[in-house]
């Protein structure tokens, strides 16, 4: 028997898989690719920051490292432009992971607000390094081997690779949430010192979570570089990226599985659509501002949590009505406290 | 009886304040030891030094004959010393059962915890048994944040017990809870003690301490003043002096001490 909840997930995946078959216009499928990449990144971000409560605003460090890994290896290894370059995607993830180890080791010594500030500082170090080093091509960036796939076909392989990445990240995030490791991350979010006193190796757990989320963000960055074909330091090490992934998770529901996916789907798709259709790069910012005001006012814990609680409440009301109908005996077993 | 946990000559200052200066404490295996003293006498700081939350400036903490001075809290816990906090600290946004499962994980490496999904049936059963022991089984699926203060105290006791520590440090287990629950907690402690668990209890409720503890250590101004049987300690003039600023053994005044705690 398929659970109702799993059915929704399957339907969502099927809809995403069918999208490029139904919508064939390249400018629309390209929106699809960007949206999927952000869905993967927001979910990765949530896998660490959402579960542990350590709000990282330096995720583009990993995104950029993945992108530069893809660019540098494909250029210097003189790779033939084409599908073989997809093999570099996990390599980009691994490089991001290696960067995350010392980054996390330093940044995770401090908590909460100080951690946020340090992640921003590290981000600027990376952006400046990418602008100033020679091997990164400086401000003129790097051009990747030019992939000569047909105009109408070009987006499709990227779309499915990005979708594969989203599914992979979602499974990893779900696995973490259900694992004992995920339990430890949640415990750190609620009370780190108490968790430490119950034998949780908090430093190791935090660094492990941080590097895992870096791995998948790095993979997304590598796909992005290959898709765009030309990378610039200010676009792969982008502060707007840092804030976007966090906002997507907040909008959808911090620490939930579906929240970041939904948040990225709404924000990135609408941003791309508005930018393309009105050729106005900042119109979306106004709409985003309005959207966030609405969400913060009416559903401060995110869309997913808001609707989950509505469902829960209506179910609870039903149970209460049933209990009332069948007599007071069942009510006493549902409530009351020993104290 | 042998000494299970020993703190010798512990000193610790916070800025100019000497929270502990040359404090000694010994906890016998299988005993219930009480630690009492006026507010600010350093009881909680001593707890923090033993459990690794605060590093001592000088002195030594030994457990089962091994030096554990300055160990991190997770290492201390893994050795078999569990503690509760004065202001209960639980994981508010996790369910009661999940709270229990966090504590159960101490005996395996974090890498194994990473690889394993979900807690095993046996671990969940074990957690539920302890919830049953303290009497909050039916709250297992609720968010811990929705529990009342007394229920939080019970949960905190349960998730320290679930990891099966040898000695349990309780910081004011009777603080801020009603009389029925105080008696309930005392019963649980007695039952566990009969099963071989050692307890070290900080408490302001004199009746609770005097009825429950085998040995009582009185602290004053950062060092241990008197150690002895409850009855002896109770009548010791030094203790009365420390607590009441020189007075008689009047029940009313004791009640006042409780109220201030």
Structure description:
The complex is a heterodimer of chains A (339) and B (261). With 339 residues, chain A is mainly α. Chain A has a single domain (26-323), classed as ABC transporter involved in vitamin B12 uptake, BtuC, CATH 1.10.3470. Chain A has 14 helices and two strands. A two-stranded antiparallel sheet of chain A has the order 1-2. In chain A, α2 packs parallel to α6 (155-178), α3 (60-76) runs antiparallel to α4 (88-107) and α11 (258-278) runs antiparallel to α12. Chain B is an alpha/beta fold. Chain B has one domain: Rossmann fold (3-Layer(aba) Sandwich). Helices cover 40% and strands 24% of the residues of chain B. Chain B is built from eleven helices and ten strands. In chain B, strands 6-7-8-3-9-10 form a six-stranded mixed β-sheet, sandwiched between helices. In chain B, β1 (3-14) and β2 form a beta hairpin. In chain B, α3 packs across α5 and α5 packs across α6. Chain B is globular and about 50 Å long. The relative contact order of chain B is 0.17. Mean pLDDT of chain B is 84; it is low at 246-261. Classes of the chains: A mainly alpha (339), B alpha/beta (261). At the A-B interface, α7 and α8 of A face α2, α3, α4, α6 and α7 of B.
Number of domains of chain A: 1
Report the top-level CATH class of chain A.
Mainly Alpha
Task: Report strand order across the widest sheet of chain A.
Answer: 1-2
CATH superfamily of chain B: P-loop containing nucleotide triphosphate hydrolases
Q: What summary fits the major beta sheet of chain A? A: 2 strands, antiparallel
CATH architecture term of chain B: 3-Layer(aba) Sandwich
Determine Rg of chain A (CA atoms, Å): 22 Å
Name of the CATH class of chain B = Alpha Beta
The biggest beta sheet of chain B, please?
Answer: 6 strands, mixed
The general outline of chain B is globular
């Amino acid at each position: 028997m398929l659970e109702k909840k799993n059915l929704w997930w399957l339907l969502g995946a099927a809809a995403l898989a069918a999208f490029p078959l139904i919508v064939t216009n390249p400018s629309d499928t390209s929106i699809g690719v960007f949206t999927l990449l952000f869905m993967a990144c927001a979910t990765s971000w949530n896998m660490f920051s959402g579960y542990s409560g350590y709000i990282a605003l330096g995720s583009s460090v990993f995104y950029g490292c993945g992108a530069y890994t893809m660019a540098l290896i494909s250029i210097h290894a003189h790779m033939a432009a084409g599908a073989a370059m997809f093999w570099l995607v996990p390599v980009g993830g691994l490089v991001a992971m290696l960067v995350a180890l010392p980054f996390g080791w330093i940044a995770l010594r401090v908590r909460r607000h100080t951690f946020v500030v340090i992640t921003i500082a590290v981000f600027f170090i990376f952006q400046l390094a990418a602008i100033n080093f020679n091997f990164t091509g400086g401000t003129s960036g790097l051009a990747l081997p030019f992939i000569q796939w047909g105009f109408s076909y070009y987006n499709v392989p990227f779309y499915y690779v990005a979708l594969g990445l989203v599914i992979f990240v979602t499974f990893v995030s779900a696995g973490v949430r259900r694992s004992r490791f995920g339990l430890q991350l949640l415990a750190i979010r609620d009370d780190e010192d108490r968790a430490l006193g119950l034998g949780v190796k908090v430093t190791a757990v935090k660094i492990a979570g941080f590097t895992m989320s870096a791995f998948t963000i790095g993979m997304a960055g590598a796909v992005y570089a290959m898709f765009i074909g030309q990378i610039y330091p200010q676009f792969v090490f982008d502060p707007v990226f840092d804030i976007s992934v966090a906002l997507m998770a907040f909008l959808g529901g911090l620490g939930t599985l579906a929240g970041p996916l939904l948040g990225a789907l709404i924000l990135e798709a609408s941003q791309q659509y508005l930018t393309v259709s009105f050729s106005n790069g900042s119109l979306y910012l106004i709409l985003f501002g309005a959207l966030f005001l609405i969400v913060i006012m009416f559903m401060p814990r995110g869309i997913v949590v808001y609707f989950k609680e509505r469902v829960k409440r209506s179910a609870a009301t039903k149970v209460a009505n049933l209990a009332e109908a069948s007599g007071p005996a069942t009510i006493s077993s549902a409530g009351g406290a020993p104290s | 009886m042998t000494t299970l946990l020993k703190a010798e000559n512990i000193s610790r200052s916070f800025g100019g304040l000497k929270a502990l200066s040359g404090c000694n404490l010994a906890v016998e295996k299988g005993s219930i030891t009480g630690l009492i003293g006026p507010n600010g006498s350093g009881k909680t700081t001593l707890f923090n030094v033993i459990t690794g939350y605060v590093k001592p400036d000088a002195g030594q903490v030994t457990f089962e004959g091994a030096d554990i001075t300055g160990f991190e809290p997770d290492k201390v816990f893994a050795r078999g010393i569990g503690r509760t906090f004065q202001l209960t600290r639980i994981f508010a946004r996790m369910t009661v059962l999940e709270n229990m499962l966090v504590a159960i994980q101490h005996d395996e490496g974090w890498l194994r915890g990473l690889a394993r999904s979900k807690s095993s049936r046996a671990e969940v059963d074990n957690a539920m048994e302890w919830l049953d022991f303290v009497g909050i089984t039916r709250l297992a699926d609720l968010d811990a944040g929705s529990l009342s203060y007394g229920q939080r105290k019970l949960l905190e006791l349960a998730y320290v017990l679930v990891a099966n520590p040898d000695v349990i440090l309780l910081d004011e287990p009777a603080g801020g809870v009603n009389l029925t629950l105080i008696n309930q907690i005392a019963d649980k402690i007695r039952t566990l003690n009969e099963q071989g668990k050692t307890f070290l209890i900080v408490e302001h409720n004199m009746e609770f301490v005097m009825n429950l503890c085998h040995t009582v250590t009185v602290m004053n101004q950062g060092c241990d003043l008197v150690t002895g049987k409850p009855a002896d300690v109770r009548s010791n003039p030094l203790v009365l002096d420390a607590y009441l600023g020189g007075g008689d053994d009047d029940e009313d005044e004791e009640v006042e001490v409780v109220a201030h705690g």
